[in-house]
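Just wondering, can you check both lines?
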Amino acid sequence: MVPSQPSAMPETPSPWEQPDLLSLVPGPSAPAMAAPEPAAPLPSAAPLPSAAAMADSTPAPLQAPSGAAPSCPERLLILDTETTALSPDDGQCIEVGAVLFHVPSRSVLTQVSFLLPCRSNPAQAVNGIAAAVTRLEQPLAPALACFEAMVAAADALLAHNAAFDRQWFGHGPLPALAGPWICSMDDIRWPAARQLKATPSVRDLALAYGIPVWAAHRALTDCIYLAQVFERCDDLEELLSAALEPRRLYRARLAYAERQLAKAAGFRWNEPLRGAWSRRLSEREVAALSFPVDPVEPLTAGESSSEAA
């Protein structure tokens, strides 16, 4: 997961440094996955496993269960990804984590995570995943099959900064995902009593709900934090139902001197709309604002901010 940066002015991220693959080779103490000898990096001439080798076939886009979407999903699929870059044009997804969460009982039903092989990971400093580790032998095809079954069982998909995570599906062996999406950063209005920013990080959410933060930036870890937050939400059904209300992207119509009003209302500068304070809102939320806004996209339901602009 790539954390959002809801700052008042845009910032340019510092470039990731290219790691030395030779330094990523597991030492003799690393546990063998399937071969009796420690795994070593692939020679430069050796091809990476193809999508066909990693799974029986590239799956068709997975659809949400038929019928009208419930006002509150009963089974929620919490997703997270780790990647080598900020977009599929520049890199690839190298890890997927998922938790199938039963909302009425506040229970985890199924969870899975798996690595996807890569030659290099310029984002290793962020996610801590060495490229050589992604190439160790693992039961990837069964893990993908489990993930697809979890998607088929879910009433809605949820990710923190869903605009980032959902763009990786439909590439390589990962299936395209259709159906209602919820962004726990942008679409859920967390209770004011938790004293959170309008667009909180996963870490901030966990701490606000009394959950110890013991690790960060691995896909399944962040999914588990969100599941534990949901376990402690007495008003979870109301939060999810409100998150699924039809929304559209709005631009704040404010003078520069009034920009703090937009920031306090959860609007972000330059993201996703360049050169403006913007946020996706329902009509009910627009009516509650203390300043005027202009819509910049059609009203849509069951989509996250990845569909905006």
Summary: Strands lie at 75-83, 93-102, 107-115, 156-159, 181-183, 248-252, 268-269, 277-281, 293-295. The chain has a mean pLDDT of 81.
